[in-house]
UniProtKB/TrEMBL annotation:
The gene is dgat2. This is Acyltransferase. One of its GO terms (molecular function) is diacylglycerol O-acyltransferase activity. The keyword Lipid metabolism applies. The lineage of its organism: Eukaryota, Amoebozoa, Evosea, Eumycetozoa, Dictyostelia. GO terms for biological process: glycerol metabolic process; triglyceride biosynthetic process. Pathway: Glycerolipid metabolism; triacylglycerol biosynthesis; Lipid metabolism.
Amino acid sequence: MVRWIPASLPLHRRLETTAVLFYLMIVPMCMLFAFYSIIIPIFWGFTIPYLLWTFFYDTAWERGGRRNNWIRNHRTWRYFRDYFPISLVTSTKLDPAKNYIFGYHPHGIISMGAFCNFATNATGVDEKYPGITIHPLTLTSNFKIPFLRDVLMSFGISSVARNGCDNVLESGPGQSVMIVIGGAEESLDAHPGHNELLLKKRKGFVKLAFAHGASLVPIYSFGENDIFDQVDNPKGSWIRKCQTKVMKLTGIAPALFNGRGIFNYDFGLLPHRRKIVSVVGEPIDVPKVASPSDELIDHYQQLYMDSLSNLFHKYKDEYASESDDLKIH
Ligand SMILES: *[C@@H]1O[C@H](CO)[C@@H](O)[C@H](O)[C@H]1NC(C)=O
């Protein structure tokens, strides 16, 4: 049986669903615009100079993007926030003279909490951290898609490639990055009520911190794994083996997920309305070291994992749904 939405839904619920739908349509819309602007000759007067500019001239995608506060403050993102709802819990003040590397966990299916809390100002991140400019980072391949690159940059999103990280962290006091450390691979473990992270083999973010003397800040996002259901794929199962193989070949983690539709609650690509609470932990200061030893890197990685684990346990009774314990791989 499919549960259909009632005919009489309050307007604010319809607007919230529309905001989430709009967000999910950004990538397909940009691809469609790119396709038409390339195949239809009357647009070439615009398309050709635009593409030349994006390929040969514009480097903002690896320099922190082009943050636009009108877009980041748009009311669409407040409807987006209220759909779940999404909130941001911060305990510590951060020093605007420093640079920070925020680590976001878990990835979930598509990191919707990370987008809402850090790419937009819908939960008031700008007020919570005055003087700190947080650039969420994403894969360089996203900046190869015409139009999408400019949309991403308008949120202050930038490339996660090493020189992109370096450029942002060197661009002045308070300039900071937010990285979803587990990456898309972690999405294969994004099951509701499940808290499984891919972290032990991730050392790049610690090396980055040493290179800039930037502080590491862990974030645990309760509920990020709850908004989509995913086909059972325990490690060792044939589904998981196929997924791992596809991921090795293409770099894309093929999570088999299901949410709800626009008019029903059981089937579709929209996320479920379930709450997401991102809790930000205490910063860990990392000294500036030109070539840190492996022991030093491991030591700070361990400090980070301990801090993340403490953060999880401190807040899990308050914010976790019926969830299991934190597992860090
Ligand atoms: C961010 O949002 C808050 C409200 O939550 C608002 O008071 C503030 O002006 C916004 N910040 C910026 C820089 O637009």
